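Lab notebook, design round three. We kept the backbone fixed and only want residue identities now. Task for the bench partner: fill in a sequence for the structure below.
Input structure tokens:
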């Protein structure tokens, strides 16, 4: 090749022609929520102290030796097809140093990018066996996107702190302090997955393959039993369904997770793939990493704020609709909340101008036991 990659391991590029993005900045595909969550995380009390301490204490060399000794390293001799995908992904996203990649024996489909000084990509046998070549290409691109964005550092600390929180659970204050940071890290990491999904699409350049991969992660290797449109309809039903109780339950359900729900990821990625931003990137118009130093933090915050404002106004989620309506000055807060939680306490909202006799309000009565 004559593109300057003769000595960096990019010689093996699949025959299918894919657009390459020289000098691409991770800002190109980073979800606004990813950036704002990371900024919020860095402002979390005690995070900087913990981050600096763990950066020097985490046994990264031990981690590398562990995978070297107990997993299969991807190369021209081992899992050669994955090696081709990895080099191709690095070629497309212009990541000069190809990160080591390992296949780990685990029936659970999973992949991760970890490491403090240098990223390591790990995929499980469950994932390799589940996905076809184009679906797997999107996953490898997803992990290379994590590497280009520098996500591996925070992911490594999240894994360590999650393990540490279990060990010190018997120390109330110590556990609370760690869990506050773990919760912040999880919130950021869920948003970073949306960014990496976009990177995977830029590498694979096949939205159908990306959709199939997400469906398989949700429902297994039964594509003949699944339908993309029906799967995306689930995401719409999930967002719009129910009342304020369901909105609260959604928040509680997602808190312990490291990844967003799969239907939500699919809907977010499909929306981005159909956007003008994605088309402009494919046409070669995107931020370059040599411009990153000139990026304004204020502009990033403004972009994130605009994204959230648009998201709240367009969301069909009952809680988001309530927030949007109240922001626009519509309705009474107490009345809107009572109606949103209608039936939760066994009471029903009073009609306008209605009155209640003292001591008979449904909120004050214990629930009847009709059993």
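Proposed sequence:
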């Amino acid at each position: 090749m004559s593109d300057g990659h003769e000595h960096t391991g990019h010689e093996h590029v699949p025959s299918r022609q894919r657009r390459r993005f020289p000098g691409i900045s991770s800002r190109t595909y980073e979800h606004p929520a990813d950036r704002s969550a990371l900024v919020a995380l860095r402002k979390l009390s005690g995070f900087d102290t913990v981050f600096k301490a763990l950066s020097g204490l985490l046994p990264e060399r031990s981690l590398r030796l562990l995978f070297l000794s107990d997993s299969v390293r991807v190369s021209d001799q081992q899992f050669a097809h994955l090696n081709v995908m990895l080099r191709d992904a690095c070629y497309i996203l212009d990541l000069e140093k190809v990160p080591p990649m390992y296949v780990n024996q685990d029936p659970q489909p999973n992949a991760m990018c970890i490491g403090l000084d240098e990223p390591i990509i790990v995929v499980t046998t469950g994932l390799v066996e589940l996905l076809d070549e184009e679906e797997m290409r999107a996953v490898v691109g997803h992990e290379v996107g994590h590497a280009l964005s520098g996500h591996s550092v925070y992911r490594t600390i999240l894994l360590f702190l999650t393990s540490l929180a279990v060990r010190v659970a018997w120390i109330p204050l110590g556990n609370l302090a760690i869990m506050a940071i773990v919760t912040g890290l999880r919130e950021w990491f869920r948003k970073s997955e949306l960014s990496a999904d976009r990177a995977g699409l830029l590498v694979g350049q096949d939205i159908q393959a990306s959709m199939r991969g997400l469906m398989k992660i949700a429902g297994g290797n039964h594509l003949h039993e699944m339908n993309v449109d029906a799967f995306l309809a689930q995401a719409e039903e999930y967002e719009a369904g129910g009342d304020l109780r369901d909105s609260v339950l959604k928040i509680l359900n997602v808190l312990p997770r490291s990844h967003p729900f799969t239907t939500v990821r699919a809907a977010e990625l499909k929306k981005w793939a159909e956007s003008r931003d994605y088309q402009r990137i494919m046409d070669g118009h995107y931020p370059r990493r040599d411009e990153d130093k000139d990026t304004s933090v204020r502009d990033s915050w403004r972009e994130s704020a605009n994204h959230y404002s648009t998201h709240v106004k367009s969301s069909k989620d009952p809680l988001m609709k309530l927030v949007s309506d109240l922001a626009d000055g519509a309705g009474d807060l107490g009345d809107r909340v009572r109606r949103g939680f209608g039936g939760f306490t066994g009471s029903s909202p009073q009609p306008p101008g209605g009155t209640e006799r003292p001591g008979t309000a449904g909120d004050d009565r214990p629930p009847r036991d009709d059993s």
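Keep this in mind before ordering anything: The two ends are 78 Å apart (CA to CA).
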